[in-house]
Amino acid sequence: MVMIPAGRFKMGEIQGDGNRDEKPVHWVSVDKFAMGVYEVTFAEYDKFAEATGRSKPSDRGWGRGNRPVINVSWDDATAYAKWLSEQTNHHYRLPTEAEWEYAARAETTTKYWWGNNIGSNKANCWRSYCGDSFQYTAPVGSFAANPFGLYDTVGNMWEWTCSEYQGKYTGKEQRCTNSSLRALRGGAWNDLPGFVRSATRDWISRDDRSDGVGFRLARQS
Hints:
alpha+beta, paralog of FGE (formylglycine-generating enzyme), 4-stranded antiparallel beta sheet, 4-stranded mixed beta sheet, 10 strands, 18% strand
């Protein structure tokens, strides 16, 4: 985990060429919290599955170990957070959408934390569009970290948040809620550069599992 400092940022489609669900652009204040340096890996999740008698998710033959875990639902991810909290006596949870975007931007205002162009070999996205060498998921930490010290906030895996998805911002992006539609952030290995921007959002049902969706954890400071 790395400590994310408290701060205030402009959330949403600040570049003017994003999607409708990235509006309205608004200021958000975020308290200090800790966030996982990496997406949760198969190695970490498999320990949880073995300890609790849960079925291990399929890796589709891409490899386990330090690759980000895939094929986990929102309920799987929150169960992992609850188990880890019990093991460590710290309160782990999924980040809110606002926390996620604030941490991914790391005090930048560009499409990606390094600038407005995707560049080459800075992230893992679809085919050759990001100039990376990975056909599917990349082992965590394969690219440079953002200024807050977080890896893979651009591409590799969509990440579950604890926030309810809505078609426009109403304030629910700033808190954890219990609903069927969950907000995803970050984009994945099979997305084009426009879908791995810091502001990009997506959603699926909490019980869905996908080879493009994983998660990282937050912790109360």
